[in-house]
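Today's session is about reading a structure prediction critically. Students often jump straight to the picture, but the first step is always the sequence itself: look for stretches that repeat, for charged clusters, for runs of hydrophobic residues. Only then move on to the predicted structure, which in these notes is written as discrete structure tokens rather than atom positions. Here is the chain we will use throughout the hour.
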Amino acid sequence: MASSLVRRFLGAADEAMVRAYWERAPHAHLFAIPDLDYLGWRDARLSYMGWFEGKQLVGYFMRYALSAQWSFEREEIAAEIAPFLRNERIQFVTGMEATMWPVLQQIQGGCVTRSEPSTVATLPLDALNRDALDASPGQARLATLSDLDGLTAVHIASPDQFNHLDYPARRRALQGAMTDQWRRVYLAETPQGRVAASAQTTAEGRTMGVIGGVVTHPALRGQGYATAATSHLCAALIQENKVPYLYYRRGNTPAARVYEKIGFVPMGDALLAELEWDR
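Below is the predicted structure for this chain, in token form.
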């Protein structure tokens, strides 16, 4: 039986339809939404493919440089997305687990080198626990370039998925986050002024901010520093009417407790994965 689906590139004329699709479950499209807000339809690094059943949008594939995100309502779309990953040599993918694995299991000429089952959570605009702002013995604030060395030291000391990055690369990445107008970094420091923890936005749009890179120096864990840094970042986003979202590794009970204390509500099962392709 022939498919009734029509596939084509999406453009500015489709924006109202695309945003209506996303608004049904914003947590499922946490990079597709802010990337369009930030870059717009004309940026060559960003492209959107859509699948239609009649006039109804039933799935999309978003590519931004070497990253991708997708969602669909018809199972046969998964087989059409898989070749895009290979052709574009996509290295990083993020989305809801239910629509991620059906695509990743069909890729050819490459493999998944790392997959991290995660929980995606959101903080409603009226749900921030104000007590979390004072969770640590020191203060929390917006980071500046003068904090760069202290922040880099904390990230280097805290094992995560970016362990392969050396000190200069970590420093450059943090500097980029602090100087990008669509991102920001917050930190919590000890009473003596030492950087203890940090949290940053990995993407921001007009109505949301995606939080990541939450780390605490191993010697200072359990003292509320990550809670303070993250909650102050959330407060800044909420002040601008941006809903905070984040991912945390499924089964990471300490992280889940921190985010629950701040007011985050789990929304579903997500997956973050890295891909590698044959030469």
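Discussion point for the tutorial: The helical segments are 15-23, 32-39, 77-87, 97-104, 148-157, 167-179, 225-239, 253-262.
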